[in-house]
Amino acid sequence: MILFHADDYGINTAQAKRILACHSHGCLNSVSLLVTSPEAADCVQLLPEDLRCRLHLNFREGPSLSDPAGIPMLVDDRGYFRLSFGAMLLRSLFRKKRLKAQLRKEIRLQILRMQELMGPDVPLRIDSHGHYHMIPAVWDALFETCEELQVKIREIRIPAEPFGPILRDPRLLIKAPVSGIIKNLVMHLLYTRNRIAGSQPKDFDFKKNVPVFFGMIFTTRMTRLPVRRLLPSFQKLAVSRGRDLELMFHPGGLSANEPLWDERFREFHASPYRYREARTLCSMSSTPARHTKEDSQEVKDHGK
């Protein structure tokens, strides 16, 4: 199965409707829900029955579900998440025990909120905002919390994108964002640690529960050119491994006047690339194989 997946679903209902347009007019078949959003319940009501929904664990922006007094390492005086990926990773290395205890509190509430919104019988599928769940302390706290709640993770994202397909396309490799390549290397290192020393159950099936991932190197730039050029190779790889394939997109950008729960991230949510990724999702079934003038412009953009 190919998962054409949209992250960050549920910022508000207007954004949710823009994302869902990629389902009704394109190939989108999976989303990640931000259960910490004030409008999460309203956004869930908009979900079509045939659209898969994951929990998008959030430790990055907006307010926590936990009492801020109980998780001071994670939030500021307003109760808003305050740690960047790098800061969380450092605390994971040097203050892991205390950090894990606070993470378990928040993870527990986010899982319970997901069950409340989607129903207790809906399979638990998980990824996270900014891929924080790959940080060792978060990874371990997640599986320990699931054991406490007696729930099993049916699907989890491992955003360690295989390098093979892009290495076989030199023209695209040259234009690949350096930041994306570095992030992908970090994800591979964290995946190796988590698989070897993580708190997942001994019988956790990384083949069955983890789709092959496509979308890290070109994060926020999953436009027509890289998707069309690389998708066949990723499909072939997923089939050879007997696994599903996930393509990660970030459609559903915000307009300048729309309210946002955390103004620190307005530029991230209003990025023009979100609209370009939405167009990619809506054109997948009809995009011709030949290159277009827009493709040529995308090549230039990828090199910026």
| Estimated share of beta-strand residues | 5-15%
Computed CA radius of gyration, to the nearest angstrom:
19 Å
* Percent range of helical residues: 40-55%
Neighbour order of strands in the largest sheet: 5-4-3-2-1-7-6
- Unreliable stretches (pLDDT < 50, length at least 5) are 286-304
**Could you describe the largest sheet, including whether it forms a barrel?**
7 strands, parallel
Description:
With 304 residues, the chain is an alpha/beta fold. It has a single domain (2-302), classed as Glycoside hydrolase/deacetylase (TIM Barrel, Alpha-Beta Barrel). The chain is 47% helix and 12% strand. It has 13 helices and seven strands. The protein has helices at 13-24, 40-45, 85-94, 96-118, 136-149, 164-167, 170-175, 178-197, 206-209, 224-241, 266-269, 272-283, 293-302; strands at 2-9, 30-33, 52-57, 124-128, 153-156, 212-214, 245-249. Helix 1 links the parallel strand 1 (2-9) and strand 2 (30-33). Helix 4 (96-118) crosses helix 5. Residues 286-304 have low confidence and may be disordered.
